[in-house]
């Protein structure tokens, strides 16, 4: 199959002016490479900050929220007024938690679900005291959900599976109380229960407030600290396979329980707003870069057309229509854009690959950037689309050239 | 002589608006027969080139009517006119006007590829034939810009012939050529009109060239003053 004569002419023009083609393409190359690089950074940070959130926040949390007093009966023909409404919640625990846990686990979209008892308490070492929250967990399930292991600085998380006197504390707690692995620490709850625990592990998230207050203990220990039996559970945490759609599944889950269901997006709205802002800025910046690249193509094509006025007149005299002329020059812009986009994708890929090997140090580790196929796909579409747009306007002008005017000169 | 009419104008008129309104063509009416070798002469600025561009369908800004073959060309869309030019009109210009970065062969082939009546191989073959007819078969694969003026002019004639158009128009086709090349071009035109029945309309300054053609129209001040000029 031979090329259509329009494309053949376009190709000849391109091949006889390789340097100009390359210069025009370079603009697109730089634009696309930067587009891919900056967007990869944004999606890398997005994933990183999400993962960071998921180290402490569950995808979905089921808990007993404080309730305000409600009228005992509802009336349709009169208004019931309660004066001086009070919080009526007697206890923040979930009644019959294991039944609810089984119900939650039986939902198909739930990957893991685990009970948790959170206890407000003091860490005491000698004279120094530190206020904090003890998370009473079943460590294997909690680890599966929050990947606690990845935040461990020292010690062993597994001791929590059986040792009721073991505690894993945040690095900030360890620093403030000047304790390390193997040291003893006293816990004191609001109920007045004191327990002496042995530190078996230290973790560090990148969140200072969390590191200076949080600790993991066995769920039974937590229940003892608040003087409750083994069916005392304050929260049920669930993780789902599609965290990005957490709000949808949260509403689904709400249908099977009266307790409050909160998804991570609601709980971390401020952090997400920050990510969104970054996600809005970057495309704008890369769009400006692409606009500059588009002007490069526009200029070079305009120049080509000015130089080729005679040729265009000849083609028209020989029976080429206006739209043939448009096709010729838009194809040239497309070829330039295509070369530029291909090179841009390659350069972008190389840049991202290099950044991936840059080690930042704990707690981040390697630079949070990754190859996101979506970024490459939109970059490619973007590059080609912009080139076509930049080519169309000069091409349309070329198609309007009046051959008689040229020949008369 | 066969009097099939291939091109006809009725009351053709045209104005130039700049620098001021000025009538360049005034009531031009004439006919061109099939196989006729017609030349148009006149002083500079008498409107003969302007008329040729109107006849070529490239300039549509005129009053009066133009018929090509049996079709009325006046009032057709530019796209339709482009197709009409592609099929039925071949052009030879004073400044040979080839596409410089293409080979001679490609230059000749382009209008035929546009017409798409024949396959690529057939077009190539036909282009070779035309170049051979003009004695250029050895130059076929050279870039157009590397040829001499006379050779380029002959290539542009080959290009004008590739679609076997009914009419071949020339705007001073020999204006840039020495006498030897002028003679060659003249012979080719003569042969085309006599042997292939193609009509030639050529604007020229060259009285010898005009004298040897079938008929000469003389123009002055936008009017035809002589439909069949006799040279002494």
Written account of the structure:
- The complex is a heterodimer of chains A (409) and B (232).
- With 409 residues, chain A is α+β, with helices and mostly antiparallel strands.
- Chain A is 53% helix and 18% strand.
- In chain A, the strands form 2 sheets. In chain A, strands 2-3-8-5-7-6 form a 6-stranded mixed beta barrel, surrounded by 4 helices.
- In chain A, helix 1 packs across helix 12 (322-356).
- With 232 residues, chain B is α/β, with parallel strands linked by helices.
- Chain B has 7 helices and 10 strands.
- The longest helix of chain B has 17 residues, at 179-195.
- The chains are: A alpha+beta (409), B alpha/beta (232).
- At the A-B interface, helix 1, helix 11, helix 12 and helix 14 of A face helix 2 and helix 3 of B.
Helix count of chain B equals: 7
> Regarding quaternary structure, how should these chains be classified?
heterodimer
Q: Provide mean pLDDT of chain A, rounded.
A: 86
The geometry of chain B reads as: globular
Query: Mean pLDDT score of chain B, rounded?
Result: 83
Beta-strand residue fraction of chain A: 15-25%
Task: Identify low-pLDDT runs of chain B.
Answer: none
SSE run of chain A: HHEHEEHEEHEEHEHEHEHHHHEEHH
Portion in strands of chain B: 25-35%
**In what order do the strands lie side by side in the largest sheet of chain A?**
2-3-8-5-7-6
Largest sheet of chain A: 6 strands, mixed, barrel
Backbone structural class of chain A: alpha+beta
